[in-house]
Amino acid sequence: MSIIATAAGPSSLENLERRLAVYVTRECRRVAGWLAPESAAVIARLAVAQADWKIAGGAGEIGIHHGKLFLLLFFALRAGERAFALDIFEDQQLNRDASGDGDRAVFLGHLRRLGGDPERVSIFAQDSTSVTAATLLAATGPLRLMSVDGGHTQEVTRNDLQLGEAMLLPEGLLILDDLYQERWPAVAAGTFAFMSDPANRLRPFAISPNKTYFCKDPGHAARYRDLLAADFADLVLGRASVFGSEVLILGRRTLSNRIRNHRLVRANPDLYRRLSRLRHFWR
Ligand SMILES: C[S@@+](CC[C@H](N)C(=O)[O-])C[C@H]1O[C@@H](n2cnc3c(N)ncnc32)[C@H](O)[C@@H]1O
Question: pTM of this prediction?
Answer without folding.
Answer: 0.91
